[in-house]
Design goal:
395 residues, binds adenosine monophosphate, 6-stranded parallel β-sheet, alpha/beta, 17% strand
């Protein structure tokens, strides 16, 4: 696996695919700069060696050139975070971009305009990728968030850099962290899967059953398992067409020696709102008119015990409707359990959309071993897929 360490960037121009797809407010100010922060280490390493950085990214889903999606809006944030001047060019390919690159001197940074102003980017067009490849000597992919897409800048471009391509620090760390959970893990290994639906995570469950000793199934998806086993779940979220699959998963887990832990009690609410009436109730006996919205206290204690016996922990998906304060306690309790286990030496990886939002919101992001930056990309790796963006560097 080639990383920055395998190259000398002195007097070289690195063309770096970063993920600067950050949220902007109505005044076009960056409201969460985590992704820019995440690319800092790669940029600094290259600048310090006397190389220059040509940064390329997409922002949002523009249809052609649309000023509101211009990466110009984020230049100030990049300057603030990286701590040096950043040049900007109003195109990502062609004469203007090439001239801007030609004028770049060692230790300078140039940000290209939004890649998705060209539909060729998402189409993975080879001639567009070739034009991009003219803008650097060494290709560095540091965008985990788009590594599962075979786009021009994330995958196709790599073929023009035979022997001159590598992973940036962020992408390398993402790969190492997932590898540490799936392939080089210290046992016992625990996967915690929560969130709304089992349908979006079936392939993940099937793939990780071969890798883990314990599986916690929480959140909305647990009700499909409970109903399939004959429990009464009231108005809780459930995928009736996945009940057979749920039973099959339990059977497979048993055959593979994986211990499955499902909530035994829940916080049930009579309305899907913060000020609903609630009761703590056996998960198998939720009355009509009530729905399970969070893990109950017995479940939290059970999960705490499991988490604390494990040496490797993967967490994807909240244990309840954590966006509502009244239903966040189960997810917060799990965060505390993982924090404790991590302090005791476990490796903990949090990834995939909503659990990342939850750990940030509740202050656990600094307490776990690693928080992944890629939702879809992370899920696809957990499904056992080879991501095209990663494969293109390894080839
Ligand atoms: P996912 O994207 O599949 O990880 O699902 C995350 C979403 O699941 C969050 O928005 C949670 O509010 C939601 N969720 C978790 N537990 C429940 C539940 N018991 N009922 C309904 N939604 C839930």
């Amino acid at each position: 696996m080639k990383t920055l360490k395998d190259f000398n960037f002195e007097n070289k121009k690195a063309i770096i695919r970063v993920d600067f797809n950050v949220p902007l407010n109505s005044e076009f100010q960056v409201t969460d700069a985590t992704r820019i922060q995440a690319a800092k280490s790669t940029i600094i390493d290259i600048l310090e060696q006397g190389g220059s950085c040509v940064l390329m990214s997409h922002l949002g889903r523009p249809k052609g050139f649309q000023q509101e999606f211009s990466l110009q809006h984020i230049v100030k944030s990049v300057v603030d975070i990286i701590g040096c001047n950043v040049k900007f060019v109003e195109d990502c390919v062609g004469a203007k971009a090439e001239a801007a690159v030609a004028n770049l001197v060692p230790s300078e940074i140039l940000l290209l305009e939004n890649l998705r102003f060209y539909e060729e980017e998402e189409k993975g067009a080879i001639d567009f990728a070739e034009k991009l490849s003219k803008l650097g000597d060494i290709y560095v992919n540091d965008a985990f968030g788009t590594a599962h897409r075979a786009h021009a800048s994330t995958t196709i471009i790599a073929q023009f850099f035979e022997g001159n391509k590598c992973f940036g620090n962020l992408l390398a760390r993402e790969i190492e962290s997932i590898d540490k959970v799936l392939n080089n893990s210290e046992r016992p290994v625990l996967a915690i899967l929560g969130g709304a639906k089992i349908s979006s995570k079936i392939t993940v469950i099937e793939n990780i059953l071969d890798k883990v000793d314990h599986l916690i199934i929480g959140g909305g998806m647990s009700f499909t398992f409970i109903k399939a086993q004959g429990g009464t779940i009231g108005n809780s979220i459930c995928e009736d067409d996945k009940m057979e699959l749920a039973l099959e998963i339990l059977k497979q887990a048993k055959a593979k020696g994986v211990e499955v832990h499902i909530p035994v009690d829940v916080v049930a609410a009579d309305d899907f709102s913060n000020d609903a009436n609630t009761q703590i109730i056996d998960i198998n006996q939720i009355p009509e008119g009530w729905e399970g919205v969070d893990a109950g206290p017995k479940s939290r204690a059970n999960f705490d015990a499991v988490v604390n016996t494990c040496k490797t922990i993967l967490w994807n998906g909240p244990l309840g409707v954590f966006e509502m304060e009244a239903f966040a306690a189960g997810t917060i309790a799990l965060g505390h359990s993982i924090d404790k286990a991590t302090k005791n030496g476990a490796f903990s990886l949090v990834g995939g959309g909503d659990s990342v939002a939850a750990v940030k919101q509740f202050g656990f992001a600094e307490k776990v071993s690693y928080v992944s930056t890629g939702g879809g990309a992370m899920l696809e790796m957990l499904e056992g897929k080879t991501l095209p963006g990663i494969d293109a560097i390894l080839k």
